[in-house]
Specification:
This protein is an alpha+beta fold. The chain has one helix at 4-40; strands at 47-48, 51-57, 66-72, 78-85, 96-104, 109-115, 120-124, 128-129, 131-134. The chain is 27% helix and 37% strand. Strands 5-4-7-9 form a 4-stranded antiparallel sheet, with no helix packed on it. A 3-stranded antiparallel sheet has the order 2-3-6, with no helix packed on it. The chain is elongated and about 105 Å long.
């Protein structure tokens, strides 16, 4: 018959062999998984849109008293498009107002009129990250 010590030794050897194979597979596969995740999770970040925003309140107006002035702080002209997400909407109105595409020269300004407090202005230009500006309720 088999000696109990040799049976235990054989069982331990098999367990150690299985454990080392599992550990080896984990260590070999881990760098490949990390490399694949790093490649898929790091999109290229666009540069910030070089526009500085200032608000002005138009005195004596009723309803939409704010005007947004955007200055192109960059060195090149920008072709900017966007939309205004309205904070107050009647059931028969669109929830967004589309801003026509406009080219803003370096150092020049563009204005967005008829804004209310809480409106969101979303602007975009090719090669830049979108810019979101929220109209304040008070100045």
């Amino acid at each position: 018959m088999n000696n109990p010590k040799s049976v235990r030794l054989a069982a331990r050897s098999r367990a150690l062999l299985v454990l080392s194979c599992a550990t080896l597979l984990t260590l070999v596969a881990a760098p490949a998984v990390v490399a694949a995740d790093a490649m898929t999770l790091q999109p290229l970040a666009d540069k910030a849109l070089p526009l500085s925003a200032t608000f002005a309140k138009v005195e004596g107006t009723e309803g939409t008293p704010f005007v947004l002035t955007l200055k192109n702080d960059g060195h090149d002209a920008l072709t900017v498009s966007g939309k205004v997400l309205l904070s107050v909407v009647h059931h028969a109105m669109d929830k967004a107002r589309v801003l026509p595409e406009q080219t803003v020269a370096a150092g020049a300004v563009m204005t967005v009129k008829d804004l209310s407090g809480g409106d969101k202005v979303l602007l975009s230009a090719a090669g830049y990250a979108p810019l979101e500006v929220v109209v304040p309720f008070k100045l």
